Amino acid sequence: MQLTPGRWGDPAHPVDLPTAAVDALKHLGVRRTDAEPVEPVDRPGLTADQLSFLSQVVGNDHVASDLESRWAHTRGYSTTDLLRDRAGDTSDMPDAVVYPASHDEVQDLLAGCAEQDLAVVPYSGGTSVVGGLAPSRRFVTVDLRRLDQLVELDEVSRTATLQAGVRGPAAEALLAERGYTLGHFPQSYEGASIGGYAAARSSGQSSAGYGRFDQMVVGVTLATPRGTIELGRAPMSAAGPDLRQLVLGSEGAFGIITSVVVRIRPRPTERHFEGWRFESFDTGLAAVRRLAQDGPLPTVLRLSDEVETAVNLADPDVLGGGSGGVLAIIGFDGPYNQATADVLAAAGGTNLGVEPGELWRVGRYRAPYLRDPLLDEGALVETLETAAFWSRIPALKAAVTEALVGALGATPPLVLCHISHVYETGASLYFTVICAQSDDPIEQWRTAKRAANQAIADAGGTISHHHGVGTDHRDAYATEIGPLAVETLRAVKQTLDPDNVLNPGILIPED
Ligand SMILES: Cc1cc2nc3c(=O)[nH]c(=O)nc-3n(C[C@H](O)[C@H](O)[C@H](O)COP(=O)(O)OP(=O)(O)OC[C@H]3O[C@@H](n4cnc5c(N)ncnc54)[C@H](O)[C@@H]3O)c2cc1C
C-alpha cells in the first residue's frame, strides 16, 4: 500500500461515512466547510555538493529531490498532520529522500552527514502520529523500503531476522511461507514497518497473546554516525544492562535500526473471535483484570466503554435487545479456550457469540479510514493513549475524559475509550474524540491535548503506551522522566551522534 499525504490508508479502498453518521454529526454542531486541499509549493532544496554526496552513497537512481517524493514523505498521520497536509503546509518537507539498500549504505550516509551539514530522519513506514518525522531543522529522509528482506529464519530457536523496511503485511507473508507468524497487528499494520515498530515500541491488537513488539525483539543492529552496534547475543543475559532496551523506543535519535531479530511462532491453523457484554465498563474492567492477572489470557482482549460501545455498534441488538452495557471482544489464535470464557461468565459477562467478534475482526483496520470523511464533514477526530497500573485506571479514565470535555467545551465532544493492551499490573487506555471543528482546529486539538496530557500526568499515567514520543510528547516525556534521566539520554546521544544529525528535536529536548 502506498500512503498519500493528507489521507490515511489505501487510496484504492476509501471508506464512506454512513448517512446516519452524517446526520448524527449535526447533533454535535458539525458543519461542513468544503475547504479544498491546497497544493504544496516547492522551496529550494540541497546544494549540489550535498546531492552529490547522497548519490555517491546510494546511487543516482536512489536519491529523489522532486516535489512529489518529498511531499509524500512530509510528516506522519496524526490529525494535525493531516490538517497541515490539507493546508499545503510544507514546513516539515524533507529536502531530499534517499533509499539505501543495505546496512553499509545507511552506515556510510550517517558517517558523512555531519560533514555535509545534513540532518537525517529515518523513515520506515511513515505512520508516526506523534510528530516523529518532523525534526527541528531542515533534513533528508532516509526511507528504508529497500531493506525489505527476511535475512534468516532459525527454526530451532524460532527467531527471524527481518530488515527494517519490511512492512507489516510483507513480514507476515514472508514468515507464512515458512509456516510462522510474528503476531504483530497494530491498526497501522497496512503501512507501518519493522524498523518503526522497534524504534517506537509499537503494540499490536494481539498483544495479550503475542506481547508488545519490544517483547518480541531479541536482537537489533543499529547504524550510528560513530559506527555499528549489534545487540542480542543470547535471548537473556546477565552481562550488564540490556542495551537493546536503549535502542527500542529511541525513535531514530541514537541511530538507524537496519534489522531486528524477532521471536516468531507457528502460524495458527484456526482462529476464534467473539463478543461479550458487561453491564458497565467497571464490571468489564474487573473481568479483564482477572484474566490479565490470573489467566488464561486470549490472544486479543478488548473492552470498550459505554460511549464507544454505543457509537461503534450500528446495531444495538448485538448487545442483546438494545439493553445497553459495554462490549468486550476476545480472540484466540488457536483453539477456543473455554476456561477464558468461564472467567468472563463468572465476572458477570454474557456471551454474545461470534457475530460481534467477526464484525470487529473484519473491520479491524478500517476504523482509521473513517477519520478522513469525518474531517471532510467538518468534525475534529483524533485519538490519544496512555497506560497505568490497575489501581489508577478508573481515576485516570475519568480525569482524561473530564479534561477533554472541559477543553473542548464550546464544541462538546464525544469521548470514546477502550482497553486493548493488558498486563498483570495494569493496562492501556485509548481515547477517541469527535466534535465540531472550531475556526482553528489545529490549535483546538493542541489545547485539548495539553489538558489531557496534564490530566494523565496528574493521575499517574504515562504520556504514551505505544504511539511513542516524537515531538508532540517530547516535553511531557521529559517531565515524566525528570532532568537527570533527560541528561542521561543526552549523554548517550552525544556519544553516538555528536553532531546531532539524527532526528534533531525528536524524543529528546534540545539544549
Ligand atoms: C491509523 C493509525 C493507527 C495506528 N495504530 C497503532 C497501533 O495499533 N499500535 C501502535 O503501536 N501504533 C499505532 N500507530 C502508530 C504507528 O503506526 C506506530 O508508531 C508504528 O510503530 C510506526 O511505524 P513506522 O514504520 O510507520 O515508523 P515511522 O513512522 O517511519 O517512524 C516512527 C519513528 O521512528 C523513527 N524511525 C523509523 N524507522 C526507524 C529505524 N529503522 N531506526 C530508527 N528510527 C526509526 C522515525 O524517524 C520516527 O521518529 C498508528 C498510526 C496510525 C496512523
Which structural traits does this protein have?
Alpha-Beta Plaits; 7-stranded antiparallel beta sheet; 5-stranded antiparallel beta sheet; Uridine Diphospho-n-acetylenolpyruvylglucosamine Reductase, domain 3; 18 strands; 4 domains; alpha+beta; 19 helices; 511 residues; binds flavin-adenine dinucleotide; Uridine Diphospho-n-acetylenolpyruvylglucosamine Reductase, domain 2
Helix content range: 25-40%
Q: What's the average pLDDT? A: 95
Number of domains: 4
Radius of gyration: 23 Å
Distance from first to last alpha carbon: 39 Å
> What form results from the Cα inertia axes?
globular
The major sheet is characterized as:
7 strands, antiparallel
Strand fraction equals 15-25%
- Give the uncertain stretches in residue-range form: none
Provide the list of bound ligands, each named once: flavin-adenine dinucleotide
| Tally of helical runs | 19
Predict the CATH topology of the largest domain: Uridine Diphospho-n-acetylenolpyruvylglucosamine Reductase, domain 3
Domain FAD-binding PCMH-type: 90-267
Binding site for substrate: 371
Keywords: FAD, Flavoprotein, Oxidoreductase
Site (Important for enzyme activity): 302
Structure summary:
With 511 residues, the chain is α+β, with helices and mostly antiparallel strands.
Tell me what you see in this structure:
FAD binds at residues 122-128, 251-257. By secondary structure, this protein is of the alpha+beta class. The protein has four domains: 47-143, 2-Layer Sandwich (Uridine Diphospho-n-acetylenolpyruvylglucosamine Reductase, domain 2); 150-266, Uridine Diphospho-n-acetylenolpyruvylglucosamine Reductase, domain 3 (2-Layer Sandwich), CATH 3.30.465.10; 271-364, Alpha-Beta Plaits (2-Layer Sandwich); 368-472, GMP Synthetase, Chain A, domain 3. The chain is 34% helix and 20% strand. It has 19 helices and 18 strands. The chain has helices at residues 19-27, 48-58, 67-72, 79-86, 103-113, 168-176, 194-200, 207-210, 213-216, 244-247, 281-294, 306-312, 338-346, 354-362, 371-376, 393-407, 441-458, 474-481, 483-496; strands at 63-64, 96-98, 119-123, 139-143, 150-154, 159-163, 180-181, 217-224, 227-231, 256-263, 265-266, 271-278, 300-304, 326-333, 350-353, 379-389, 414-419, 426-436. The strands form four sheets. It has a seven-stranded antiparallel beta sheet with strand order 15-12-14-13-17-18-16, sandwiched between helices. The chain has a five-stranded antiparallel beta sheet with strand order 5-6-10-8-9. Strands 1-2-4-3 form a four-stranded mixed beta sheet. β5 and β6 form a beta hairpin. It is globular. The two termini are 39 Å apart. The mean pLDDT is 95. It binds flavin-adenine dinucleotide (FAD). Residues 8, 76-77, 121-129, 132-133, 144, 164, 186-188, 191-193, 195-197, 199-200, 202-203, 251-252, 256-257, 368, 466-468, 470, 503, 506 line the site of flavin-adenine dinucleotide.
